[in-house]
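Every protein is a chain of amino acids, and every chain bends into a shape of its own. Below is the pair of lines this work produces for a single protein:
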Amino acid sequence: MIKLYRARGGAYGEEMKTLLDQLDNQTSDVLAHRKATALKGLPVFMREKSGNFLRTCLDTEPEDQYTKGMKMGILSIVKDNVGTIHSSPNVRCLSVVLEELVVLDNVQDLPTAVVLLFGLIYCLNMNYPKELKYTFETIQKVFIGLDPQCSQRVQSFKNKVMSM
């Protein structure tokens, strides 16, 4: 996926470029950063608003300000704001958000947070938010493999990933 993001990066604007620059500047635990970048870049690549799925707040700020309007997603809580545009902030933990409420806290990495979010979605039989339907469909059908039938956009993404 990172290769695909790099190949098409210019078409997706500054947000994708920033994600890839942050990945390039990592020197420790590169594999974890690659996984996180793949997930963070997915809504951008699918041309959906990543802020509806992934948000960030400082640990000194109240979380409820950042969960407003968030139907389901992941909130990154960072220790400080010393990171520049090309470096990653110091993430303290992640929280899983459903219906504007933090339902799971202190999750240590983004892939785990996404898996926990999907487990809750299935347990509670919730529908995906319309503004993130392709992001969630990709995770469900391409990554987890729960259903082989994909929308045209997701099938196109799957074909591109498989051909890289």
Observations:
- The helical segments are 2-8, 13-24, 30-45, 64-67, 110-123, 133-143, 152-163.
- The CA atoms of residues 22 and 84 lie 9 Å apart.
- The mean pLDDT is 88.
- The first strand starts at residue 54 and ends at 58.
